[in-house]
Write a structure and sequence with these properties.
Layout lengths: L1 E4 L7 E8 L7 E8 L12 H9 L1 E5 L2 H10 L4 E4 L8 E6 L1 E4 L2
Antiparallel strand pairs: 1-7, 2-3, 4-6, 5-6
Amino acid sequence: MKYRLRDLISVSQRLTLVRWANPQKTQTKVEFIRLEPGYWYDKYADDDMYVQSLKDWSVTLRSTPELIEALKQRGIPYTTKKGCACSGGKLNVTFPGIEVVDE
């Protein structure tokens, strides 16, 4: 198994993920990692809790017609939500930010 940031994300991201702290799976540990766009990673790929944290991580960006079209073309599920009043009520798009591939 390997993973990377989706190609729609062009800047590095700092993630807070959870993984098992011991082989007996009785303690968890918070893991802080930085992922760079364009690189594949396999750190902790055998940890089921960590992999689930990767799959659950999502990113929220300002909605543009180009972004919506790119998500549709790639078959990436997304949700839209109007932002708070301080942002002028602009539309935001949330989608899974990590691509996970089983080898």
